[in-house]
Amino acid sequence: MTAHTPEQHASETAETSIAYLGAQGDGAAILPDGHTVHVPYTLPGERVRIAHTASGKWSLVDVLSPSPARVEPECALFGLCGGCTLQHMDRAALLAWKTGRVRAALEKAGFSDLPEPQAFQVPPHSRRRADLAVRRQGKDILLGLHGRGSADVVDLTTCPVLHPAIMACLPALRQTLRSLEGLYRAGDVRINLLESGLDILLVTDGPLSTADRSRLAALSSEQSIPRICWQRQGDQGLPETAAQTGPVQHVLAGSTVNPPTGAFFQATAESEALIQNAVLEALPPKMGKRDSVFELYAGCGTLSFSLASRARVQAYEGYPPAAEALKNASGGSRLAVECRDLNRQPIMAKDLATAACVVLDPPHVGAKLQMKQITQGKPRSVIYVSCNPAALSKDASALQAAGYRLTSVTVIDQFLWSTEVEAVCGFTHESSRRSRTGPSR
């Protein structure tokens, strides 16, 4: 079996077996001299022939004995486009591997008696968020993703991950980009598929001309794109609206939000619902009417409205446009919103101690200073939504040291064929016997 990878000049070859997958999805092989090397596009248990390339890395030459989990990649661009790293792996095996990553992160944090994780996986063609690179190449425009470990852009002519509505707009978008005077050499396009349709943020390396704005307005009208915003590379201010033909709306747990351009939402509609359900199931049972939930890193309200159906919610979000959108949509006394940068001004322990539950969905790097206040305040329950097993392990170790036990784990593979994994973990404080209105004295 020959590898589906670009050919590279090899200075040395070897036959070896793959022991396990590393965090980046590359197979780990132990060479005869004892060194461990990582080889892309390989799977555990396989016997492979690998080559030591001129760049100093090892590449796959041939699969001599394939794993039962090996499948034919679904995309013709796999191995060129860097968007997917594990399309050669059966989806069931992929979900099991990601579940194992979450397990390992929690065990590293000190939790030895883990509850059995619930595991879910989204279908292909469901991702509603895309961050694409733009490059001029002669008279053509490349619109797609970077090659793996490369600055080169692979033109995205097909994709089994992205929602069909996003893929359908790319030819017209590519044609418009080709004519833009404000796109000198490079830019970026960020696309959200909302309830109201596509919402596009265009970033270019030059200023838009009057003609450019007319072209974007035509694109918005012809493709029924409610809003196209623009920002110049390096600008620190908010993007400006270049064209708008209708309202921009998204529905979260029955509530309608008018989000800012480029707003963060979960990658798929399916995973959004799964995360919401997992958080609700992890809430303390029999919450009273006076119980309150502190929601940290609330965004535009992915979890806020679901939580507000069960308790009073105090939501905090650091990005002002997102906080404003959530505040405008809150519509009731059960959901209060405050704009606050939690990495610079965390909610203090004495306030968190009064909460029946603290729910947090921190950025990729984790909760940083906020975690220290959580572990000092010791709220009865903590629900942690994670997109990074390394950050989860670090923050969960602080909870374990503070006396929390792990009560639930939900794993959601919403980033299909990548190494990324989402997890929702519920924690309860071992010694918590406090009243429903405040901490015990």
Automatic annotation (TrEMBL):
Keywords: 4Fe-4S, Iron, Iron-sulfur, Metal-binding, Methyltransferase, S-adenosyl-L-methionine, Transferase
Superkingdom as given in the UniProt entry: Bacteria
One of the GO biological process terms: methylation
Signal peptide: none
Binding residues annotated for S-adenosyl-L-methionine, in chain numbering: Q266, Y297, E317, D361
Active site: C387
Molecular function in Gene Ontology: methyltransferase activity
PROSITE patterns named in the record: SAM_MT_RNA_M5U (PS51687)
UniProt similarity note: Belongs to the class I-like SAM-binding methyltransferase superfamily. RNA M5U methyltransferase family.
Protein name: Class I SAM-dependent RNA methyltransferase
Natural source organism: Acetobacter farinalis
Lineage: Bacteria, Pseudomonadati, Pseudomonadota, Alphaproteobacteria, Acetobacterales
